[in-house]
Specification:
The complex is a heterodimer. By secondary structure, chain A is α/β, with parallel strands linked by helices. Chain A has three domains: about 160 residues, P-loop containing nucleotide triphosphate hydrolases (Rossmann fold), CATH 3.40.50; about 70 residues, no CATH class; about 240 residues, 3-Layer(aba) Sandwich (Rossmann fold). Helices cover about 35% and strands about 25% of the residues of chain A. Chain A starts with a strand and ends in an 11-residue tail after the last helix. Chain B contains 14 helices and two strands; from the N terminus they run H-H-H-H-H-H-H-E-E-H-H-H-H-H-H-H. In chain B, helix 3 crosses helix 9. Chain B starts with a helix and ends with a helix. The chains are: A alpha/beta, B mainly alpha.
């Protein structure tokens, strides 16, 4: 078969941390080549290099037998070559119609002042008919289903004569029926000689649709295999590597009485009711891939997203959590996934950020400023926040120190339960261990517990006393980290293995 | 080698830049640089017109400043919180008209002032409730209120100015304490001291900054964002009532068309003072300097003999200029 694309020895590092190490990847005409790897394995970096968003540090790219100057590749140039990406979050204009979106690239290219609407509609109809896509031309894009939007994006890419189609988790938000439809479209695209790079976490799906699979691990291309010839277990073990040493430092204190127990939590994110319990001195790990509902669970528990029915008891007392304020009043603290967007007042000082939750709980008009400074100073020393002064604006701190400021905020507010959503994301190893230390120290205090959410399975195994695995917006397994393995957790979270959630 | 070089860099840099630091910090502090500009303006105006530095003109400036500055103080609360209030000029007029009508009916001075202040407060509360309850964006809610309050001011007064306010009322606008300090100036200083204390020493003040800095982070820290939001609009409304009491006393009449363009002047004073248009950053003291600059320009243009229509053009350009300069500086 004809080689459509060859990527050779691609390396890329960010701020001295290498994301890709001499990765090799190639694609033939009419082939579906799957990229498989954990979060942070380098899949999206590789894709972004191919689509011109990132510049590699070194490496070669050959496209249709001609070598490309990788240092000059930019998104526009990649598009002109015929490399198109179908993103998870669609690059469509919601308030325009299907026909308008379809023809937008032509508007941009042709220039001119007037639009020949008759011609636009005719051409758009021809494109969709040729693909046998059943989408109404005059429908507004915002009213389309996820599946239809995806089809429209594919149609746009094909109308621009794409030769390579990159699909980043295209089935993540689709129903089973829609997935079947997508697969038949993929089959049709293959017949036209277009190469497809397919990123997915779902092993079964990969085995069905993939012609080849390249596995990335820690920025290296580990192996390229035919998915039909290897088992799901084999694929997973290639993905995570055989040599696994989980260094665990267990807590010396056993778990006590329940701090938070929730029964039948349901809302628009959770069609099936969810129940869970966290006990004193316990770090409850919640594992799952992106989109499994981990963040939504934390948001529901903290009262950010409204919940329909849930029996909640906190410290043995029946209660309800209707707003973040009521959660804070109960003694719950929340460390959001995106600390800059939801967690910090970036242009305020370390001191002001750290006392925010505490001040929100007071009833007086004023507050003791001397005491405020003293308690913040004590906390900053205790949790070792590296800041030139308490008056330093938080935006100038590093990721790890920003995270410590938020932790410090909840510690000062004297909360009992911490909901931590990806607390170590984007944080270097040293600061990461310090944060683990702080969490362990917190959970040792009487009456305290932690819910630890992470997509990093190693981390979950290392930190948790008990693990819940989430997949498809429900809890699919409850595991003991001592008896479980990364492999097992991955199987549950990728939907390969499924068992009833046993709870009491 | 490389690593070592990198490590040394920050401290070297700090050592080299130490002498420059004071100057740079002064330049970065908009309040300070605006203060310098104000002094420069006074010097230039003093050369342009011998009348500028006369005692009566200086008092004129402080008097004119008082009304705008008090409204701008309210606007500062709102802009720090991340909102904006376009209705200040109309609230100003309508609350004065309501007070004036009460005076015509009752001749009771105390009641007149009380009604003026309460009317301002109620308009402000209405703004806050529209924004928090109905989730109308501040720009639209207060734009609507700008029309509503102005309309009511004209309806209640039938478009006719209210005359015949007694000498005791006029004292608020024209009187002087110990025959030296004009009463409006005194009220203005009181308002700013209070506003400063509230913003610096109360939980409310801290929350105003926090919400302006990051609304979501504030909410997730357990702050009652709606309450604080209603609070800042109510404060601004009340301050509009105070400002209109002073203006009525100064002019001896209540003008239903009064306060026209005051939103431009007060927002101008706030942004010239360097309060971020995105909220969360700024200071009330800087607003005071901003208000003095705005009135100095108005006064200066009057003295040089620039016609009133041009003054509006200049005011608009100053607001755009102040925010543009702020944006350029932030980008660095």
């Amino acid at each position: 078969m004809a080689e459509l694309l060859v990527m050779k020895d691609i390396s890329k590092s960010f701020y001295g941390v290498s994301a890709l190490k001499r990765v090799n990847f190639d694609l033939e005409k009419g082939e579906v080549h799957v990229l498989l790897g954990e979060n942070g394995a380098g899949k999206s970096t590789l894709i972004k290099i191919l689509s011109g968003a990132y510049r590699p540090d070194s490496g070669f790219i050959e496209f249709e037998g001609k070598s490309i100057d990788v240092y000059r590749l930019n998104p526009r140039a990649a598009e002109d070559l015929g490399i198109a990406t179908i993103y998870q979050n669609f690059h469509l204009i919601p308030h325009l119609t299907v026909a308008e979106n379809l023809m937008l690239p032509q508007f941009v290219r042709k220039g001119g002042m007037l639009i020949n609407w008759k011609e636009v509609n005719l051409t758009a109809k021809r494109i969709l008919d040729e693909l046998e896509f059943d989408i109404a031309l005059d429908a507004k894009v915002k009213d389309l289903s996820v599946s239809k939007k995806q089809m429209l994006e594919i149609a746009i890419a094909l109308s621009k004569n794409a030769k390579i189609l990159i699909m980043d988790e295209p089935t993540a938000a689709l129903s089973q029926k829609e997935i079947e439809l997508l697969f038949s479209i993929v089959g049709y695209i293959k017949e036209r000689g277009i190469g497809i790079i397919f990123i997915s976490h779902k092993i079964e799906e990969i085995k069905r649709i993939g012609d080849r699979v390249t596995v990335l691990r820690d920025g290296s291309s580990i192996a390229t295999v035919n998915p039909k010839e290897v088992s799901a277990d084999e694929l997973i073990s290639i993905m995570i590597g055989k040599t696994m040493s989980t260094r665990r430092t267990r807590l010396s204190v056993g778990v006590g009485k329940p701090v938070l127990s929730v029964r039948g939590l349901q809302n628009e994110n959770f069609p099936e009711p969810i129940s869970l319990e966290v006990r004193e001195h316990e770090i409850l790990g919640i594992a799952g891939v992106v989109g499994s509902g981990k963040t939504e669970l934390a948001r529901a528990l903290f009262g950010i997203d409204p919940t329909d029915t849930a029996e909640i008891s906190f410290n043995g007392k029946q209660t309800s959590i209707k707003s973040p304020r009521s959660a804070v009043t109960l003694g719950i603290g929340y460390l959001p996934e995106d600390r800059d967007v939801d967690g910090l007042c970036l242009n305020m000082s370390v001191k002001e950020n750290m006392t925010l939750a505490n001040l929100a709980q007071l009833r007086s008009i004023s507050y003791n400023r001397v005491q405020e400074t003293q308690s913040v100073q004590t906390m900053v020393n205790e949790i070792a926040v590296k800041t030139p002064s308490l008056g330093q604006q938080v935006k100038y701190l590093s990721g790890g120190n920003k995270q410590k400021v938020i932790l410090g905020k909840w510690l000062l507010a004297d909360c009992r339960l911490l909901l931590l959503d990806e607390p170590t994301i984007g944080i270097d190893v040293g600061a990461r261990n310090e944060i683990y230390g702080l969490i362990r120290k917190f959970v040792m205090k009487p009456g305290c517990a932690v819910v630890f959410i992470s997509s990093d399975i190693d981390e979950i195994l290392e930190v948790s006393a008990r693990i819940l695995v989430m997949s498809q917006r429900t809890v699919v397994a409850e595991l003991d980290p001592e008896k479980s393995s990364k492999n097992e957790i991955l199987q549950y979270s990728l939907g390969v293995k499924r068992k009833q959630h046993e709870y009491e | 080698m490389n690593m070592n070089e990198k490590k040394n860099l920050p401290s070297d840099k700090a050592a080299r830049e130490k002498p420059k630091r004071f100057l740079r910090r002064a330049m970065q502090n908009q309040a300070f640089s605006m203060f310098l500009i104000l002094i420069l303006m006074w010097i230039v105006l003093a050369f342009l017109s011998p009348y500028f530095f006369t005692v009566s003109n200086i008092f004129e400036i402080t008097l004119q400043t008082a009304v705008i500055a008090i409204i701008a103080a309210g606007e500062t609360f709102i802009m720090l919180e991340g909102g904006i209030d376009l209705s200040v000029g109309s609230i100003f007029a309508c609350s004065a008209v309501l007070g004036g009508l009460v005076f015509q009916a009752t001749q009771n001075l105390f009641l007149t002032i009380a009604v003026t202040l309460v009317a301002g407060l109620v308009f402000g509360l209405a703004n806050g409730l529209l924004i928090t309850g109905l989730k109308v964006p501040p720009f639209i809610a207060t734009l609507g209120m700008m029309g509503i309050a102005r309309g009511f001011a004209l309806i209640f007064s039938r478009g006719i100015p209210i005359f015949g306010l007694p000498a005791t009322y006029m004292w608020i606008g024209q009187g002087k304490l110990f025959n030296v300090i004009p009463i409006p100036t005194l009220i203005m200083l009181l308002v700013f001291i209070l506003a400063y204390l509230v913003l610096t020493y109360t939980r409310f003040g801290r929350f105003v900054y926090a919400i302006g800095s990051n609304n979501e982070a504030a909410r997730l820290s357990g702050i009652k964002v709606s309450q604080i939001t209603i609070g800042v609009y109510a404060i601004c409304g009340l301050l509009c009532g105070i400002a209109s009491t002073i203006e009525a006393g100064r002019l001896g009449t209540v003008q239903p068309a009064g306060g026209n363009g005051y939103e431009l002047l007060s927002i101008g004073a706030v942004v010239i003072g360097g309060t971020s248009t995105f909220g969360g950053e700024g200071s009330i003291i800087a607003t005071l300097i901003g208000a003095v600059i705005v009135t100095t320009i108005r006064n200066g243009l009057n003295i040089i003999g620039v016609n009133a229509f041009w003054q509006q053009v200049v005011n608009g350009m100053i607001i755009i200029g102040a925010v543009a300069i702020d944006q350029i500086r932030r980008r660095k």
